[in-house]
Amino acid sequence: MTFPDVDTLRLCSMLSSSAFGFVFGVLWLRDRSARHFVHWALSSFLYTAVLFAFTAAPRDSLAAGMAIYAMLGLTQALPVAGVYALEGGRPWRWWMIVPVASAVLGHVLPGMLDALGWMARTERGQSVCDAAGLAISMGLAGFILAFGHGARRSVGRRLAGLAMLGYLPGYALSICGMFFELPGKNLVALLALLSDQVLLGVLNLALLAIPVEQVQRALRAAALRDPLTGCWNRAGLEQVALRFLRPGAAVIAIDVDHFKAINDRHGHGAGDQVLISLGREAAALAGEHAGQAARLGGDEFLVLLPVECRDPEGFMTRLRQRLEMSGALTDRWSVSMGLAAVEADDRRIDDVIVRADRSLYRAKACRDLEVRELC
């Protein structure tokens, strides 16, 4: 079997990279706030320019070689910068100089060693150093994409990182080929461009999948969250309630006293602020105890506390204190709470909620703000 020549493979890579760059550019023109598309488009177009420069630049020019390899290292940092921009972080990080520096250093190292008289510069040594520098550059960027902070949330990001890491066997094989005299000329370029024919498409399609995944996550979150308070809604409560169905866990029902009167006297805007304040403080305090807060509807809230929270009565006291300190509790409104513990024979969280509601009703009827159900 014979491999295609390097020039044909290079042309295929240039056409593919240009096409993806065009797609990224058009997507950015449709939404100028989507800065990640700018980074990805620059990476694709820059890679096309680098491939062309390999054919046009003088081979013996050190400056031209350094510029080409610096741009090649930059093409590997740009996809990661785009992902950071998409995730709302700073696109550029200090480590991104490493892919650029390693690619450049790998190219100039043989000449430096030759100038110092330590090792004569040979074509084989140049190819080995070029491949090693590019492998470090690609490997670092791919590792950050596939395994860095936030990678677990996105299959597309992990796949893009793995596609970049997929180039490493080609670089390793080209280095081995220099020592074991495998057939073929310019093995570094040949194997890298062969890898392009599969991995370049995988990389760019995976990048396109990342914003789609982000939108899907946002839609799922919106479907499970109350839009006013940010607490779980009933659908979200079903998703998180199962892990609290253990003996010793607790459910707290919370209700705003005379909520209708607040709306009638002060308007629905004031009522919304009451709900927002209560939801914010309940969710924040529940989170400190590995618990969850949900809004069941209207002015009814629910807090789920795990077994590890040994003092649910104290939780209710602290919640009231937080509401008072935040200025949320005033003479204009107050809250009632009812507590029920999860028992060994409970099979559904709804059974515990019913008991917590009964405690709440007794609290409201007796004007007692905290009632523990004993039955």
Terminal CA distance reads 81 Å
Number of strands: 5
Largest sheet at a glance?
5 strands, mixed
Rg over alpha carbons: 31 Å
Can you tell me the number of structural domains?
Answer: 2
Low-confidence stretches: 368-375
Strand order of the largest sheet: 2-3-1-4-5
> Pairing-aware structural class of the strands and helices?
alpha+beta
* Tertiary shape: elongated
Description:
This protein is α+β, with helices and mostly antiparallel strands. The protein has 2 domains: 6-222, Up-down Bundle (Rhopdopsin 7-helix transmembrane proteins); 234-372, 2-Layer Sandwich (Alpha-Beta Plaits). Helices cover 66% and strands 8% of the residues. A 5-stranded mixed β-sheet has the order 2-3-1-4-5, with helices on both faces. A hairpin with a 2-residue loop joins strand 2 and strand 3 (300-305). It is elongated. Mean pLDDT is 88; it is low at 368-375.
Keywords:
375 residues; Rhopdopsin 7-helix transmembrane proteins; alpha+beta; Alpha-Beta Plaits; 2 domains; single chain
Task: Provide a concise account of the structure shown.
With 375 residues, the protein is α+β, with helices and mostly antiparallel strands. It is built from 13 helices and five strands.
SSE layout and pairing:
Elements: H1 6-30, H2 35-56, H3 62-86, H4 97-115, H5 123-147, H6 155-165, H7 168-180, H8 187-224, H9 234-240, E1 250-256, H10 259-266, H11 268-288, E2 292-297, E3 300-305, H12 312-325, E4 335-341, H13 349-366, E5 370-372
Parallel strand pairs: 4-5
Antiparallel strand pairs: 1-3, 1-4, 2-3
Helix pairs in contact: 1-2, 1-8, 2-3, 3-4, 3-5, 4-5, 5-6, 5-7, 6-8, 7-8, 10-11, 11-12
